[in-house]
Design goal:
The complex is a heterodimer of chains A (512) and B (55). Chain A has 512 residues and is of the alpha+beta class. Chain A contains eight helices and 24 strands. The N and C termini of chain A lie far apart (92 Å). Chain B has two helices and no strands. The chains are: A alpha+beta (512), B mainly alpha (55). At the A-B interface, helix 2, helix 3 and helix 6 of A face helix 1 and helix 2 of B.
Chain lengths: 512, 55
């Protein structure tokens, strides 16, 4: 530890000089290696041209290197130290942001050149990590602070040693060379780096200057972007305002032409449950209902026979239950709105301790199936959408997206294999739509499979559609009486359908 | 734009070498150039500041 009460000696001053040399090396290397290689070798020799964000990161590396030279020239001032930390932090953010654009791509895919299997957007992340780590390491071994000041020997700047002249000269040359490359390939202001840049060429015929990157500049401020998706509309938590959806229950206003009519054949109240029920299923002849994380098995009188509740946050987070489907001989899949799921089964001898992590209630009646019982389905077209329903044919599970605050047009059916929960296919059903309308206007809150068809019921417009999986198209659309204003869940038994409306089970039949 | 920003940085280094008494000017060239880079970078991604990764 430094003892500031001890008088400085020449050894301290020499250590300070060595430290400044080390800082000069740092400044030189960050400009010489990533910035210099990118400019001279990748750029001039290999024809690489940075994109908008690559330019930004390359510049930030160069700025950090130059700030290190400021330290070497004018002494170890707090504002230089602070600036370097801030610049490294912003650099880490910048490369993280850029890396995020490509992080989920398949093996071998990327943007631009790769070195040792790592693409440029991730090399920037490595460089900024190195800045923080190596500068921190160098400063840890720095001499006492007053020696760093005393080394200036009362002058406002340090004299240029031969090494400093070489280092500063190289940095100046590389900054100028990058400036030239930018001038040649991206042009004079207001032109700047392009999102998909042209290959670098010394032939002016192949040089393209563009100011397109100004488009959308500060067009709004949002941290989550595509992921800023508001929660679906639930029976217990209506969310139509945030979603920007005005629910209507007149089937004649649906985006699709009707081919028939469903009539209410029976309405029965579910008794003994105060929670607002959000979904319904008929599994092995037994009704199941759910509300957020709670679920119930109903007896023949529609009274709760078994109640349990899952812990949404343990391990894989399974958010609000939107679908329940059979699996194997005795298991049931509880599907969350985030396409994550929990496999359960009834067991009157379930172990309370074993069930503790998964269930907050009902551990003596239900248990998880398959280890912890949790899994998640990664989709592609539905990646930025929540779901409000699920169905199964015994081998695959199907999900349907609901519209949200960012998407009012797209309607995606996803299909995942239940043995590994990997996506098998996705499609947007074809349909005979009215002019300028989309299936994405539907708000599918219930889904059921039978004989190669998916039946999907929509709370919006009170319609049920029949989707032929072979042709991936809607083959029927039936109206549901407008008096039912909160249709959710779907079950099918023979020619009859059942949906929830409030805490009532409504039986629907096709009108002849 | 990158041309201007790199030119400013090159000028800052040259000032440090040949006109060290111009520390303030060299520093301003560096800081202003960096601020412009960051302003443009974040402005370019402002509608999705954290990107598309699941975070």
């Amino acid at each position: 530890m430094s003892d500031f009460s001890r008088a400085l000696n020449e050894h301290d001053i020499r250590q300070a000089s060595n430290f400044y040399n080390l800082i000069t090396w740092g400044g030189l290397l960050i400009v010489l290696l990533p910035v210099g290689i990118a400019n001279l070798i990748l750029g001039y020799l290999m024809g690489d041209s940075p994109c908008t964000l690559c330019w930004g990161q390359r510049q930030q590396m160069a700025y950090i290197g130059v700030v290190a030279l400021f330290m070497a020239r004018y002494g170890f001032k707090p504002k230089y130290l602070a600036t370097m930390l801030v610049m490294a932090a912003v650099g880490l953010y910048s490369s993280f942001r850029h890396y995020g654009n490509h992080a989920m791509r398949d093996v071998g895919q990327g943007f631009g050149l790769d070195i040792f299997g790592i693409h440029t957007q991730f090399w920037a992340e490595i460089v900024f990590w190195c800045v923080v780590f190596l500068f921190g390491l160098a400063t840890y071994f720095a001499p006492r602070f007053d020696a760093l000041v005393a080394e200036l020997r009362g002058k406002p700047w340090r004299p240029m040693t031969p090494f400093m002249k070489v280092a500063f000269g190289i940095v100046a040359f590389l900054c100028a060379s990058n400036s030239f490359q930018a001038l040649w390939s991206t042009g004079l202001p207001p032109n700047w780096g392009q999102g998909d840049p042209y290959r670098f060429s010394w032939n002016p015929k192949y040089v393209k200057w563009s100011s397109d990157s100004w488009e959308g500049m500060w067009a709004g401020i949002n941290f989550l972007g595509k992921r800023d998706v508001k929660n679906p509309d639930f029976a217990y938590a209506p969310n139509d305002k945030k979603l920007g959806i005005t629910f209507t229950h007149d089937a004649n206003e649906a985006p699709i032409a009707l081919t028939g009519e469903l009539k209410a054949a029976d309405v029965r109240a579910v008794e003994g449950i105060d929670a607002k029920l959000n979904t319904l299923a008929l599994i092995r002849g037994e009704y199941m209902v759910a509300s957020k994380y709670d679920f119930w098995f109903l007896d023949k009188d529609l009274k709760p026979a078994i109640h349990a509740a899952m812990d949404p946050w343990f391990s894989t987070n399974v958010l609000d239950i939107v679908g329940m489907t059979p699996m194997g001989e005795d298991a049931i899949v509880l599907m969350g709105m985030n396409k994550s799921l929990l496999r359960i089964r009834k067991n009157p001898e379930a172990d309370d301790v074993e069930g503790w992590p998964n269930f907050t209630a009902g551990r003596d009646h239900v248990e998880a199936v398959g280890g912890f019982g949790r899994a998640r389905i990664d989709t592609e077209r539905a990646k930025f959408s929540y779901i409000h329903s699920s169905a199964t044919d015994g081998k695959y599970v199907f999900t349907a997206t609901v519209p949200d605050n960012l998407n009012h047009k797209k309607f995606v059916i996803s299909k995942a294999l239940m043995s590994d929960w990997m996506l098998s296919s996705e499609f947007e059903p074809a349909a005979q739509l009215k002019a300028d309308r989309t299936l994405g206007e539907l708000y599918v809150t219930g889904l059921v499979y039978e004989d190669g068809k998916l039946y999907a019921v929509s709370k919006n417009f009170n319609v049920m559609i029949e989707i032929d999986l072979a042709t991936e198209s809607v083959v029927n659309a039936w109206s549901i009486p407008a008096e039912f204003e909160d249709i959710r869940g779907l079950a099918k038994q023979g020619e009859e359908f059942a949906v929830l409306d409030g805490n009532r089970i409504v039986t629907l039949k096709l009108a002849k | 734009m990158e041309f201007v920003e790199f030119a400013m940085l090159a000028a800052a280094v040259l000032l440090m070498i040949f006109k060290p008494e111009q520390e303030r000017l060299a520093w301003l060239l560096t800081i202003i150039g960096w601020a412009v880079v960051v302003f443009m970078y974040i402005g370019h991604v402002s509608t999705s500041i954290l990107g598309v990764l699941n975070i």
